[in-house]
Amino acid sequence: MEIRTFQSAGEVAKEAAALIATRIREQVAKKGFFTLAISGGRTPWEMIRELAEEDLPWEKVFLFQVDERIAPDASPERNLTQLFNSIQNTKLITSLNVFPMGVTAEDLEQSCEEYAEHILKITGTGRLDLVHLGMGTDGHTASLVPGDDVLEVQDKNVALTNHPYQGRQRMTLTYPLINQASEILWIITGSEKAEMLARLLQKDPNIPAGQIDQTHAFVLTEESVTSSIN
């Protein structure tokens, strides 16, 4: 898996935005649209702000969530809330096709099925063009968290965690859907992630991130992370 290292998290965000912009132009020219799933996090929100400055055919970009907390609309804990905060006062707020996970639905299991069906409808194949992932200090990615039964899900593309994680149950894309993406973009910043990045690069199956397919994946990270890897 290719790894690209930059001096700061800000540079990582800028490079990630530039890379995604390139992929959008390529795929829109090739097939007429682009599908992207993004995770939350401080650096990803910077990435989205940078991406919003790009002159792109946003009406042909379809944005999905990698995961979301089961929380009320407009909750500051929601990734969706932070996404919209990041693109306020940009043309993306009106032209970007955003598809939120239905975490306020009465029947959350049905909501998972509907989200998976919607991805299939938009993509035509169920294969997203690019999935952006982050990683926690415990090796989780998306809301595929250590010790949860969601790690074993193979018959659903979207599922719920069985237990609250950091205070909230989650809805998440599962391994089958993530692993069939055309490309996977890891954004990993913060020196505290060094150990887990090393284990990710070793494809350690004992951490959730280690079970993500690395065939079409690459990592953007910062020097404070790679310099801490022994």
Please tag this protein with its features.
230 residues; alpha/beta; 19% strand; 7-stranded parallel beta sheet; Rossmann fold; 8 helices; 3-stranded antiparallel beta sheet; single chain; 34% helix
Describe the fold and architecture.
By secondary structure, the chain is α/β, with parallel strands linked by helices. It has a single domain (2-217), classed as Rossmann fold (3-Layer(aba) Sandwich), CATH 3.40.50.1360. It is built from 8 helices and 10 strands.
Overall form: globular
pLDDT < 50 runs, ≥5 residues: none
Element pattern in H and E: EHEHEEHHEHEEEHEHEH
What is the average per-residue confidence, as pLDDT, rounded to a whole number? 95
SSE-based structural type: alpha/beta
Distance between the termini: 18 Å
Instruction: Return the CATH architecture.
Output: 3-Layer(aba) Sandwich
